[in-house]
Amino acid sequence: MAKTAEPGHPAERREKQDTRRAILAVAQELFAAQGYAGTSVADITGRLGMSKAALYYHFSSKTEILRALLQEPIAAYSRLAEGAAGPLGTRELLGAVIDTTADLRALVDVIGNDPSAQSALQDLIPRSREVNEAITAALAGPQPDPAAIIRAHAAYAAAKNGTLALLAAHGGRLSRLDRAELLAAAERALTSTGSPSGP
User: Fold this and answer.
1) Distance of CA 104 to CAs 6, 7, 48, 111, 127, Å?
2) 124-137 pLDDT, tens per residue?
3) pTM above 0.85?
C-alpha cells in the first residue's frame, strides 16, 4: 500500500506548490492567448486535466489566479521603488527598471492589453501609482523644479515603455546593445537641459 505524505509534510507542500505553479503557468499562457475575459476556469482545468474542485482548492476564483500572477511584478516594482529612495544611483535605477520590465514582459502584456484584467484589478491601481511616483521622485532628485520632474517622467517612460516596445519588436528578446541604447536614451532624457527650438 502506497504511503501518502502527512499534511504539512515537505513532500505535500512541494506538491501543492508545484500544482499552484502549473495552474499559474497555464493561466498566464491562456490569458495571453485568449485574454482574461476570454479564458474560463474550465479552459484552465481542461488544459491541466484537473477538476474545477481541484483548482478551487488552490485558488478561490479566476481573479485570485490573476492576482497571484501579479504578485511577483508588484513585488519587483515595489522593490525598485524602495531601492529608489536608498543607495541606487539614477543609472542603476534606470537599468533596474529596464531589467525588471524585460523580466516581467509577458505579464505586463497580459494586463496592459486587456481591459477586463485591468477592471478586475482596480484596487491595485493606487499601489501602481505609488510605485511610479516613488521611482520618478527618486529620478527627479531632492527638491526638483518642474523641469526636473518632467525629465524624470521622460526618463522613466523611456526605460519602461522603450523596453516593452523593443521586446515587442524583437520577439521578446532584448539584446545587450538594445539595453545599452535604452539606458543611454533614458539617461539623456533625465539630464537634457536644452531648451526647445523655435519655429
Assistant:
1) 36, 34, 23, 11, 17
2) 777 788 888 999 99
3) no
